[in-house]
Amino acid sequence: MSQDSSSTRPSFEKLYDAHFDAIFRFVVYRVGNVAEAEDVTSQTFFKALRGYWRFRWLGGSASAWLYRIAANEVTSHFRRRRPSRPLEEIPELVLQEAEKAERSLSRNEIFVELTAALRRLQPDEQTLVVLRYLEEKPFQEIAEIVRKRTGTVTMRTHRALQKLKMELEKRGVDHERFREGFANPVPPRVPGGPVQANPTP
Fold this sequence. Notes:
Elements: H1 8-31, H2 34-50, H3 52-58, H4 62-80, H5 90-105, H6 110-118, H7 123-134, H8 139-146, H9 150-170, H10 175-180
Helix pairs in contact: 1-2, 1-4, 2-4, 4-8, 5-6, 7-9, 8-9
């Protein structure tokens, strides 16, 4: 039975304030669209609020817990929105969405290529690259988030990075510009109250 009490909400709001920017940044790099990232992030924190009593009972890392929820919500987001257009048209569509995200977040132009290239990787590879090279998390913490052994995560992350470099090279991004892509500016907080999502049917 859930515990949506007055004592739970202030505690959850502190957790929300501490982790919102990082979770939103993680999501927007994955989906490449600010409006959709807002929806996915809101749904992430709604589900976190709904299960917060269980998290407090079981314990563990709040950051890892939230990243797992966010990664699952990103996966669900793409499953609900499978492209109906031919596969060869997808890179251009991704680029258009990335350009919108760049303008909304005041990113430099490398964000466009980086986001589009990320979307060419497998979902689990995207998660590893974003957590390691955009969020700058240690391998041990990433392993806790994705629930894999640290050695496995390290190997898979390096492989994913090499694939990303190849995708960026195809887009004409040289080594220096590639490094600029990991400058990791923090996006602005989405306006509104703490939890603005509706339960999914």
